[in-house]
Amino acid sequence: MNAHLGARTGAAAGPRGTLVVDAFVLLVLGALVAGVVTLARRWAAPLQATVAIDLSPRALPGYTLLSLARGFAAYLLSLVVTLVYGTVAAHRPAAGRILVPLLDVLQSIPVLGFLPGLVLGLVALVPHRTLGLELACVVMIFTGQAWNMIFSFYGSLQNIPAELHEVARVFRMTTWQRFRMLEVPSAATGLVWNSMMSMAGGWFFLTVTEAFTLGDRDFRLPGIGSYMSVAIDHGDRRAMVAAIVAMAVMIVATDQLVWRPLVVWTERFKLEESAGAETPHSWVLDVLSRSGLLRRLRALLGARPPRLARTTPAPVAAPTRVVGRLVVGLALVATAAGVVELGRLLLQVPAAGWVQVAAGLGATTLRTSGAVLLSALWTVPFGILVGRSPATAHRVEPVVQLLASFPAPMLYPIVTAALVALHVPFTLTAVVLMLLGAQWYVLFNVIAGAGAIPADLREAADVCRLAGWPRWRTLELPVVFPYLVTGLVTAAGGAWNASIVAEMVRFRGTTLTTTGLGALITQATSAGDFPLLTAGVLTMALTVVTLNRLGWRRLYRLAETRYALSR
């Protein structure tokens, strides 16, 4: 009966409809192959001392596609690192005790902290080709994507129900089978959603990663980020608006063609379903489901005989352990060498440099705190009001997602121009610029928290006739609090990273700057002052890690012990 029903469903589209869809699939595959070949040719091209950026609108589609290709190349690298790093940290407790805190440190390092070493090292590795510079750009985008994905995957592996692990043992699954059939499906939903946020994080510094200066050397790659950077330098408002529109179109297209289908596809991996929950829908998957070519390919792959579980031979296991120990030894040697080099650089920082770092740290701490506080002041009431109604949340969330995915630095010149016209001091303008990127993290989490309030608690509040402030104080704010803490932590991290581009802005051929750690890091990078850059980056990383451990962790513990619904 199921086969008969499937035949009728497949035939409903008709031969002509199936041929059209198959032609569309082949066209898309051909376009992808052509894009990969074009990108490969570009990466193999000779390295040019200077790259001229064409600000005409006709050049913008090509630049947008180049930036999109770099973003997805970085995402593929992030995905591979996520699967390996998260798996090792989850399955090897000894390694996890090192890898998880290390991840906390890595995500606190701003992108400019990775930039000098990556660019100079990879360009020196491939000195006469564009490949080295392209790889450096991809890896810098990777540093804005990977950490969030790794935390998500690691957390999902830690939370797999024990009964599922027991089933895997009963069926004697191999390590690969357990990974492919249990761990990846269990982590798929969270990984896809965090991948969307990670792509947005990668876009944030696009104007920096595609156009940057190290000392007297100007490194620039054609892309929408460098297009916007040159447009800002020239004060070309038409080009800036065109870049903003192109970026918005790229984000919406990526959401509809990639992320939305993946969100719908991962619904099959959910361990439980809520009654009456709205099922996500994707028009792309609806179209692809009518492709006879993809159905035959899926049937061919599904017809392969299953592989029998095999144990790893002892001689193979022994070399594996030896290789693992060798890798750990090399990592320890590299770490020791890095510590020595770090100490050498810090000893070169003069006393005046450390005074600059201390003053910058104090100023940036005040600005990031102000940005986070301002974010909470409007997002908490607005998010609760939106989250109360599933229909309203369904309409608002796509708009918020677009705004959150848009790289805020592209809007900095426009916002700066408006605030300068209002005679707002730049030291306060920097707070507003930080706010542009930080606020969406808080809003997303508050909306999710308000939507998670159980129906029986809402009904109890209605029965007790709770309204206004009493309802907020006794029901909505306590339930939302754990989500709010998560949003504030993420927003604070985003504000610290945004300080690099918010405290020093190019505007109408001039540079506006204010005292701050972010401005110091940017200036040190441009001047090629590696000792001062190292001191600034290390100070920012240690500050963020300390705040996470001493401040935010206590709020997390309070949320878990006093406000969690499960207690």
Search tags:
567 residues; mainly alpha; two-stranded antiparallel sheet; 3% strand; globular; disordered N terminus
Q: What would you note in describing this structure?
A:
There is one protein chain. Strands 1-2 form a two-stranded antiparallel sheet. It has a two-stranded antiparallel ribbon with strand order 3-4. The protein has helices at 2-11, 14-43, 60-91, 93-108, 111-125, 131-143, 146-158, 162-170, 175-204, 206-209, 224-234, 237-265, 283-288, 292-302, 314-347, 351-388, 390-405, 412-421, 426-451, 455-463, 468-502, 517-527, 530-563, and strands at 211-214, 217-220, 504-507, 510-513. The longest helix has 38 residues, at 351-388. The chain is mostly helical and 567 residues long.
Per-chain topology:
Layout: H1 2-11, H2 14-43, H3 60-91, H4 93-108, H5 111-125, H6 131-143, H7 146-158, H8 162-170, H9 175-204, H10 206-209, E1 211-214, E2 217-220, H11 224-234, H12 237-265, H13 283-288, H14 292-302, H15 314-347, H16 351-388, H17 390-405, H18 412-421, H19 426-451, H20 455-463, H21 468-502, E3 504-507, E4 510-513, H22 517-527, H23 530-563
Antiparallel strand pairs: 1-2, 3-4
